[in-house]
Amino acid sequence: MGAIASALQACRDRIATACAASGRGSDCARLLAVSKTFPAEAVREAHAAGQTRFGESYVQEALAKMESLADLDLEWHFIGPLQSNKTRPVAQRFQWVHGVDREKLARRLDEQRPNGMVPLQVCIQVNVSGEASKSGVAPVHALALARVVASLPRLRLRGFMAIPEPTPDMDRQRQAFRILADLLRQARHEGLELDTLSMGMSGDLESAILEGATIVRVGTAIFGRRD
Predict the structure, then answer these.
(1) Rounded distance, CA 115 to CA 118, Å?
(2) pLDDT at 135
(3) Mind listing the pLDDT tens digit of every residue in the chain (227 residues)?
(4) Topology of domain 3-223, per CATH?
(5) CA pair distance 162, 134, nearest whole angstrom
(6) Which end of the chain, N or C, is less surrounded by CB atoms within 10 Å?
(7) With helix as H, strand as E and coil as C, how does the chain read?
(8) Angle, in degrees to the nearest 10, between helices 40-48 and 3-22
(9) How far apart are CA 132 and CA 9, in angstroms?
(10) What's the rounded Cα separation, in Å, for the pair 192 and 189?
């Protein structure tokens, strides 16, 4: 078994253990392999080990990988900050976008999603730690944005995404993730049919799953550290 295959299995084991501890079943969270900055060959190796969902943050890099890997059945998620001038290729080529944090982006993605394609699956990014350097809508404004996104016909709002401030303290990790979980409950109470919490990475996926994560985004623990 190669290094990436071994790392994938270790991540799957961590996810299964955390899911069991959460009481939601051993498959409560899906693994999104964050392949940004890693070559197409690494994605191909991960696919050979059974991984089909991949996260990218840089549009041109992602498009090049899509061309190189067109023979594989892959699900591509855009997880990085999205600039208005890059929405068209994202709307046309990706299946998911995790980082919508303002109405302008949502409307551009909706307008640029081609007719005949299934709706673009969308998560709203929430800045749960209040960091000035982080993208994301403030929690107090997240539900208002959710209502707008849910009304757009070529988008399907799935839930919320967050990248909390890193900390080794599991209690603090869980507190940040709980903000996102509370938003999902409030949105459902309003009648929005949401099912996704995209939260948790290599260092904190256990805390995220305990607070309800349904997608964990893991890069380092699969592919190694980035240069």
Answers:
(1) 8
(2) 84
(3) 699 999 999 999 999 999 999 999 888 999 999 999 999 999 999 999 999 999 999 999 999 999 999 999 999 999 999 988 999 999 999 999 999 999 999 999 999 999 999 999 999 999 998 777 788 999 999 999 999 999 999 999 999 999 999 999 999 999 999 999 999 999 999 999 999 999 999 999 999 999 999 999 999 999 988 76
(4) TIM Barrel (3.20.20)
(5) 10
(6) C
(7) CCHHHHHHHHHHHHHHHHHHHHCCCCCCCEEEEECCCCCHHHHHHHHHCCCCEEEECCHHHHHHHHHHCCCCCCEEEECCCCCHHHHHHHHHHCCEEEEECCHHHHHHHHHHCCCCCCCEEEEEEECCCCCCCCCCECHHHHHHHHHHHHCCCCEEEEEEECCCCCCCCHHHHHHHHHHHHHHHHHHHHCCCCCCEEECCCCCCHHHHHHCCCCEEEECHHHHCCCC
(8) 60
(9) 36
(10) 7
Structure tokens at 126: 């929430």
